[in-house]
Amino acid sequence: MTSARDLAYQAEYQRRRRATARASGGAQLNLTVPRELVARLDHLKLDRGLPNRNDALAVVLREYFAGDETKGNPP
Fold first, then answer.
1. Residue 50 and residue 56: Cα distance in Å, rounded?
2. What is the tens place of the pLDDT at every residue in 38-57?
3. How confident is the model at residue 2 (pLDDT cuts 50, 70, 90)?
4. In sequence order, which residues have a C-beta less than 8 Å from that of residue 52 and are 6 or more positions away?
5. What is the domain extent for residue 3?
6. Fewer CB near the terminus (10 Å): N or C of the chain?
């Protein structure tokens, strides 16, 4: 069972993590997607040795938008 102390620590950890991300130019994105896409994202994460889904999704988005730029369609 998770204690109130554990929950408070986790909440503070997440606040610090989000603040650090914002300070370094990051933005938060929350979404719901089909499980099949999550499975594919997890596969990409493992294949590329990425530490988490966040990094895997960033790779997917960068590659997608880089493809648009090569076609002459700015994002």
1. 6
2. 999 999 999 999 999 999 99
3. confident
4. 45
5. 1-28
6. N
Q: What is the domain count for the chain?
A: 2
- Say what the pTM is: 0.68
In a shared domain, residues 47 and 24: no
Our CA angle for 46, 55, 22, nearest 5°, is 160
Tokens of 61: 């988005």
Residue 23's alpha-carbon distances to 3, 39, 62, 71, 72, in angstroms, are: 30, 30, 20, 32, 31
One-letter amino acid at 69 equals E
Take residue 73 and report the two structure tokens written for it. Answer: 């369609």
Q: What is the pLDDT of residues 30-41, one digit of tens each?
A: 899 999 999 999
